[in-house]
Amino acid sequence: MGKVSKFGKIFTIVFNIVFIALIIYVSFLFLKFIFWSFLSIFSFSSSDSFASMNRLINNILMMFIVTMVLLIVLSYAFSAVCLWGIFKKTGTKCSNVLIPIYNNFCLIKDIMGSGWYFILSIIPFVNTIFSLFLFYKLGKCFGKTTTYCVLMMFFPTIVMPLLAYDDSEYEAYFAKKKSEKNENEKIN
Fold first, then answer.
1. How far is 44 from 119, CA to CA, in rounded Å?
2. Beta bridge mates, 4
3. If 0-12 CB within 10 Å is exposed, 13-18 middle and 19+ buried, where does residue 107 land?
4. Considering its fold, how many domains does the chain have in total?
5. Which of 49, 95, 110, 137 is the most buried (most CB within 10 A)?
6. CA atoms within 13 A on the CB side of 60
7. In angstroms, rounded to a whole number, what is the distance separating the alpha carbons of residues 141 and 76?
8. What's the CA angle centered on 144, arms 139 and 150, to 5 degrees?
9. Tens of pLDDT along the chain (188 residues)?
10. What is the distance between the alpha carbons of residues 160 and 89, in angstroms, rounded to a whole number?
């Protein structure tokens, strides 16, 4: 087990606190818009009720869109920081993190040994199972225990920054398996 750096611990704690605070803030903002929109329905006459209902629906949709954009930007920033640390350990060019689809290709190539596995990440339903397997293999590439890898499969938000910024070293899992197979063949 590698020792987690101070940056990794602080980043994980701060990110999770900011993420929870953002969700709470956006939820309260969303409820505020709904409350004021409902209030505006009852403050107008009955002939204006259609326009009031239309404003309510527009406000709800706008808050939904704003919430989704904020969550997407925050999750992309989080994954970029985590992948930056992982790419630095694997020796992959760190600027590849900033290219949205190519960063997944590079990660899959580093973990699985072949970029062809990227195809599995774009097939619906298969990509869910493949991503669980990928997180498991990512932990194994850094010499982590099975328990750590299972935690990484189901709680990547917490475990990924710890993996990215601890002292563990990258061991190409696929290369290790091939070398073990070659050694077994030499012995026989």
1. 55
2. 166
3. buried
4. 1
5. 110
6. 10
7. 23
8. 60
9. 456 667 767 777 777 777 777 778 777 777 777 777 666 656 555 556 666 667 777 777 777 787 788 888 888 888 888 889 999 988 889 888 888 889 889 999 988 888 889 999 888 899 999 999 999 999 998 988 999 999 999 988 888 888 888 888 888 766 555 555 556 566 65
10. 13
Would residue 1 count as lying in a domain? no
- The position carrying tokens 């290369």 is 175
Structure tokens at 170: 């990258």
User: What is d(CA 57, CA 80) in angstroms, rounded to the nearest whole number?
Assistant: 35
Query: Both tokens of residue 44?
Result: 């107008």
Examine residue 46 and state whether it is found in any structural domain, yes or no: yes
Cβ atoms of 80 and 160 within 8 Å: the answer is: no
Which residues fall within 8 angstroms of residue 47, CB to CB, at 6 or more apart? none
Whole-model pTM over 0.70: no
User: To which H or E segment does residue 7 belong?
Assistant: helix 6-43
Nearest to 104 by CA among 125, 134, 77: 134
Task: Answer yes or no: is 183 within a domain.
Answer: yes
> What domain range is 49 assigned to?
6-187
Output DSSP code: residue 168: -
Residue 125 φ/ψ, nearest 5 degrees = 70, -40
